[in-house]
Design goal:
binds flavin mononucleotide; alpha/beta; 208 residues; globular; Rossmann fold; 6 helices
Length: 208
């Protein structure tokens, strides 16, 4: 695995791990070109140490979930999505709130990934959540619903989800996160994800 501790400080960035020794898959629940959720996901992703390979799976072309399609032939893109989820050591979801819940595209992607029964790709998977909403009071409802879904998928919520309200005021024109309070929360969340990755990567090396 090539895992060594550098120096004496106990920093999560302080481990020498081979580049790409852990994988995190990003999923954005908004298809909008200038999605604030995508910007939030990018801000979070930029904080991973360089031994974490981060990749976004674009869910735009995942079809609506349909059990008839599943029973005849699972679409290639769904198979690829499930492979990527399975292959990832952790998942980072950026979820908009649509009418008090999860966006349809995100729900379809999660439903496909959970199927067929007994072959869910999310089982046991660490999942971190960030949410950006434009209003000052929104986001709690989608967080509730997504928490229930993650639980239902037998996945594990990692860290404290980050909810960003009044999101248009918290990014600059280039879509870069400019709000320091949000940055602190995101750093804490990513630290928790990295700690989870380190735990699951280090345990096998400690076994006889
Ligand atoms: C169909 C739709 C429903 C929405 N419903 C809510 C909502 O329930 N609560 C909320 O806070 N914002 C709601 N919004 C506003 C979103 O928070 C805002 O558009 C946000 O920027 C969407 O995320 P995005 O920038 O990643 O596309 C809704 C927006 C759309 C398009």
């Amino acid at each position: 695995m090539g895992l060594e501790k550098r120096g004496h400080e106990n920093s999560l960035n302080d481990f020498d791990m081979k580049s790409g020794s852990a994988k995190v898959l990003g999923i954005v629940g908004s298809l909008r070109g200038s999605s604030l959720n995508r910007s939030l996901l990018n801000a979070a992703a930029s904080l991973f140490p360089n031994w974490v390979k981060f990749e976004v799976f674009d869910i735009e072309n995942i079809p609506h979930y349909n059990q008839d399609v599943e029973d005849s032939e699972i679409p290639e893109i769904v198979k690829e999505f499930k492979r990527k989820v399975r292959d990832a050591d952790a998942i980072l979801i950026a979820a908009p709130e649509y009418n008090g819940s999860v966006s349809g595209v995100l729900k379809d992607a999660l439903d496909w990934a959970s199927r067929p029964h007994g072959d869910s790709s999310f089982e046991g998977k660490p999942v971190a959540v960030v949410i950006a909403v434009s209003g000052r009071r929104g986001g709690f409802s989608v967080l509730n619903h997504l928490t229930l879904i993650i639980d239902y998928l037998d996945a594990k919520m990692v860290g404290e989800p980050v909810l960003v309200q009044l999101a248009p005021q918290k990014f600059d024109k280039q879509g870069k996160l400019s709000d320091q309070e949000t940055l602190v929360k995101i750093k804490k969340l990513i630290t928790d994800v990295v700690e989870t990755l380190l735990n699951c990567k280090m345990v096998p090396t400690l076994l006889p």
